[in-house]
Amino acid sequence: MTEENNDKIDIKSMNYDEVKEYVKSINEKPFRAKQLYEWIHKNLVLSFDEMTNLSKDFRVKLDKSCTIEGARVIKRQTSADGTSKFLMRLSDGNTVESVLMKYKHGNSVCISTQVGCRMGCRFCASTVGGLIRSLKTSEMLDQIYEIQRITGERVSNVILMGIGEPLDNYDNVVRFIRMLSDENGLNVSQRNITLSTCGLVDRLRKLVDEHLTITIAISLHAPNDELRKEMMPIANKYTIAEIMDACRYYIEKTGRRITFEYSMVEGKNDTKECAMQLVNLLRGMNCHVNLIPLNPVEGRMGKRSKGADIQGFKLVLEKNHINVTIRREMGSDIDAACGQLRNKNKGGKMHEGEF
């Protein structure tokens, strides 16, 4: 059970069993717990007053002791391709970003897990300004809830690939995954949830032991340790060999394919030599490589690789039987790269009246 600074209970971060215990502790009838939980996590209400099948006394009691605050949209940009970028304000004035992508198979939402990031990847806008704090479970859930409230459309796929390193906010992220997939809430299948990490090996192994059925994506971006250290400071702590061992552990335990993300930086990691090193690294592994044309970020590393070089890199992988795709660009006209919109709005903190 988590609490706000004003001593109100953050009831949206409580799982179903915790809500049942809380309802019991305040001498309410047990069946009220299911009603309360569904109002928050299925009906997505913003106030206790909207919970019309709860008694007025119960609602007053809840309002005095609990909060269902989370994240609220303060800015939306919509791309020509239908992608929407949302800037969301948290209760303390900090902001995070979420992206809605529409596909034939359903709506996907990419959410943030932290305000800022301390991983320091040289090509990423999310790390500008460092880490401010991790998000509560309620703040991660509400990024999805807000988008469903605004669009009136169900979100069927969720990607933890926005601002922040999910495994740096481990406990809240695991709680989020379990609550998002709870049949008493939105009931999003864990198989439709993807978690992207730069490779915090100890926590990655711990995550595998949680027995979740989510998809793991590794932000690799380089085929050897020397180059990866130039691009990603976390490489000074964990070697690629250690990450590969953890990936094989995931594949062995889950039987699922793992994804490797590879941002293409001109003249840095896009050579045919790099492609062959990547082939040798991944050969025989049940994996998929997602080549990502680099989004330009002011003051960050490098330019995106030329189209011909990306295609050439892809061809080397394909010829060596590595499953590979080039990420389809969506929302490039609306600052859709992680952290770009937030950075344009006063370092990530906005208050009412400033947008």
Could you explain how this protein is built, in words?
- The chain is of the alpha/beta class and 355 residues long.
- It has eleven helices and 14 strands.
- The chain has helices spanning 16-25, 31-41, 56-65, 137-151, 170-180, 201-208, 225-231, 240-254, 272-282, 307-319, 340-343, and strands spanning 9-10, 66-67, 71-78, 84-90, 95-103, 106-111, 114-116, 131-134, 155-160, 193-197, 215-219, 258-264, 287-293, 324-326.
- A ten-stranded mixed β-sheet has the order 3-4-5-6-9-10-11-12-13-14. A two-stranded parallel ribbon has the order 1-2.
- Strand 3 and strand 4 (84-90) form a beta hairpin.
- The longest helix has 15 residues, at 137-151.
- It is elongated.
- It starts with 8 loop residues before the first strand and ends in a 12-residue tail after the last helix.
- Mean pLDDT is 91; it is low at 1-5 and 347-355.
